[in-house]
Amino acid sequence: MTGSGGMPGSDGKTGFQRASREGGLFALRAGWVGGGSMGVTDHKEAAARQVQSLRAAVLTVSDTRTEASDASGAAIRDLVTRAGHQVVHYRILKDEPLAVRAEVARLAGEEAADFIVTTGGTGISPRDQTIEAVRPLFQKELEGFGDLFRMLSFQEVGSAALLSRATAGTVGRCLVFCLPGSEAAVRLALEKLVLPEIRHLIAQLRKA
Description:
Layout: H1 15-30, H2 40-50, E1 55-61, H3 71-82, E2 86-93, H4 97-109, E3 115-119, H5 130-134, E4 140-141, H6 143-157, E5 167-171, E6 174-179, H7 183-205
Parallel strand pairs: 1-2, 1-3, 3-6
Antiparallel strand pairs: 4-5, 5-6
Helix pairs in contact: 2-7, 3-7, 6-7
């Protein structure tokens, strides 16, 4: 039985709740959210025409990893390259907030890369300090990135997803993504979120 107005239906939602959700989804697909008459697909297609190959920097934050044992850093570089972009910088940094912040600030300030991906240091142990190091640099934080990543992670690892503080934001004309240290996590983030949207995000960031 379908609910009407404020009466719940068989799905437990009122007619008002269903109409609001469906209207919101329709508005998003139609391009009404965020202004303009272009839909999401139109925006992404336009971005793909404007933005071609991008430059990426990869930073692994770890006290113990070496280049030989850095499976997450290798996975990021492989995925970025296979998506048609160029990895212009790769470095392993200790879990030292000032060093991590300085490296991200340098890369963004010199516009040496269009986007930076860090891996490691996003959990809650005392040495996990990547978020504290990078977040003060953000001009705009993309809260939705962390929300979506944790939603996807929940489907893979269940309630353990809440331990991740993964986030993203803009630093000047550069996008920065702070990902967990596991290879599975970086593959999930790159394949499902970062790479499908990176051209669109950069096109938006470069607007005058």
